[in-house]
Amino acid sequence: MTDTSPTGLRLGAIQVAGLRIQSPVFLAPMAGVTDAPYRKLCRRYGAGLTTAEMLTSDVRLWDSAKSHYRRVQADEAEPRSVQIVGNEPQQMAAAARQAEQSGAQLIDINLGCPAKKVCRRAAGSALLREPALVESILRAVVSAVSVPVTLKTRTGWCRETRNGPDIARLAEDCGIALIAVHGRTRACRFNGDAEYDTIALIKEQVGIPVIANGDIDSPQKAEQVCLHTRVDGVMIGRAAQGRPWLIGQIAARLQGKDAPAEPAETEVFQLMREHLTDLHAHYGEQRSVGIARKHMSWYLQNHADSVILRRNFNQLTNADAQRRFVTEELAGGWRIPPQAA
Predict the structure, then answer these.
(1) Phi, psi of 19 (to 5 degrees)
(2) Which among 25, 72, 118, 257 is least buried, having the fewest CB atoms inside 10 angstroms?
């Protein structure tokens, strides 16, 4: 066990309108990553909120295979959160209503995705250049549903236009219940270091809960960010890929508790096996093979024999072979498969 925070930091539950989120550590919604099996895993390790992968605001596309697997599951832990992306107010409102009818208890609006294919459609973080349109979208969505609406955004469009505080004040005025801010502009994408001064300024200027996101990869870093910004919680993204237990370690630190140590290799192996089983069950054995390669590779990336193990796993072409790999080839604590020796 590690020592508790020497600073005395004690973050508690977060009230979002009528919902109480018990842990101050959220899992960031990531397209192609935060599917139902992964969200379930991160909840187990202490995530207070896990938002489903973003859905297009065009509900006509929700019956596609990709959208089907991205939709929130009725048996998921509460509160269930769904993220929508788009640029047309009434279409966003219709998507929010449909998500609520399908079981969502929180609607999250994507104002932060920097991906070119999203920004080309004037959605995601591209909307940061159009505050008037942002206001129309926020008011339309908030008026369309009875559940709380949250916002995921960035510090601004570019370094010269960090209008995150303006957007945050606008969001609060429109009825947004919580805002999560990534400490980069759209132009930064994921390059360079995240900055937290703008997030601190946002927290000073609004009364709704604010969640800090970006480059938070350890309990110590999470604590530093919270002390600097005075936010209500943190959102963890890429750092938890292949390390879902990091969420629990960070949550403990922020709540002033003893943080769990890094899991033993045998624990990681067991976790991989459980995660793989859930992936196969969720997607079906054929579709899950490629998706499992990504997740299993993240678990293996910090192992001394990472290159060999990842190469061998990624060459497997069916679910049975993947299961044999994690139950036999890795048995006994990451034993290198004979063919790789």
Answers:
(1) -105, 140
(2) 257
Catalytic residue status for 113: yes
Per residue in 27-51, pLDDT (tens digit) is: 999 988 999 999 999 999 999 999 9
Cα torsion angle, 282, 59, 30, 231, sign: negative
Supply the pTM of this predicted model: 0.90
Distance CA 237, CA 31 (A): 11
Tell which residue, 296, 323, 324, has the closest CA to residue 311: 296
User: DSSP character for 153?
Assistant: E
Q: Give the model confidence (pLDDT) of 200-259 as tens digits.
A: 999 999 999 999 999 999 999 999 999 999 999 999 999 999 999 999 999 999 999 988
Q: Which of 42, 113, 174, 226 is catalytic?
A: 113
Across the strands, what pairs with 27?
A: 50, 236
Percent pLDDT > 90 in the chain is 66
**Where is 52: in which H helix or E strand?**
none
Nearest to 297 by CA among 277, 276, 278: 276
φ, ψ of residue 176 to 5 degrees: the values are: -65, 135
Beta-ladder partners of 284: none
pLDDT tens digit string along 102-138?
Answer: 999 999 999 866 555 554 455 566 788 889 999 999 9
Look at residue 182 and give its three-state secondary structure. strand
Burial class (CB in 10 A: 0-12, 13-18, 19+), 223: buried
Residue 207's nearest CA partner among 168, 162, 235, 180 is 168
Closest to 125 in 3D by CA, of 108, 138, 109, 111: 111
> Hey, is 170 helix, strand or coil?
helix
